[in-house]
Amino acid sequence: MSRSIPKLSRRAFGADALMAAAAVAALDASAQCGGTGATPIHCTEQEVAFPVVAYIFERPEGLVVVDALLTDLASKELRAEVGAIGKPLQAALLAHPHPDHYAGLGNLVEALDAPTFAVPGVNDVVRRDDAAKDALISGMFGPEWPTNRSFPTETVIEGSTLDYGPGLSFQVTDIGPAESFHDSVFVLEAEASVAFVCDRIFSLKHAYMSDVQNSSKLAAIDQPMAKMAEDTLLFVGYGMPATPALLQWQKTYL
Q1: 73-87: b or e for each residue (b if 16 or more CB lie within 10 Å)?
Q2: Closest Cα to residue 65, out of 81, 50, 52?
Q3: What are residue 68's phi and psi, to 5 degrees?
Q4: HSE of 169 in the Cβ direction (CA atoms, 13 Å)?
Q5: Fewest CB within 10 A of the end CB: N or C in the chain?
Q6: CATH number of this structure's domain 20-253, picked from the four choices 3.60.15.10, 3.10.105.10, 3.40.50.720, 3.40.50.150
Q7: What is the mean pLDDT of the chain?
């Protein structure tokens, strides 16, 4: 189904790009993986193939990890970082069903008594598409494609809260089709607003658009951003953390 594309001048696009760049540059070093307030946030970026990022949220009681990277090496390095912190992994959260976010789950949680949570739609898509992804990606990545892939062990619904103690409580938003066939957002309910929005926003990077039509992604960008404060930190799957000011650039780019 076709849709009309509004005309956009180069001046307007450039203005949005400058605003987006400012939204990224305005964040200080503590926001760019180091945390905010009493909740340190560790970032692990996969360097080979795709520069996707996973996040470790730390509190005295333990850790929560969001997403698990793609390759065997990168996901094992993520697990090693969890071990080096020296606190129990309380849960892994899967926001997104693309393999660059879930393929490393097996390495992350292996031999640990830690549940993996996802909204039902993300869980369904991961399980439905894994065989096809295996057939496609195993030949491309060889031994770097994890063979011990695992799936979510628990599902969590829209509006639920995953509470792991003070400073480590996440509110769940079920987005539905957007950048993937099903997306979700986890908002850290701490003294400063932090949201993991996964690939719904690409921080000044090219967006993946093969799974869902542009109209779905455009509609999803505004949900639930209207409820977020202007200074909310958006932690993304690719690129630097940003603020909601980046949203207009993303919509213009699409």
Answers
A1: bbbbbbbebbeeeee
A2: 81
A3: -140, 15
A4: 11
A5: N
A6: 3.60.15.10
A7: 79
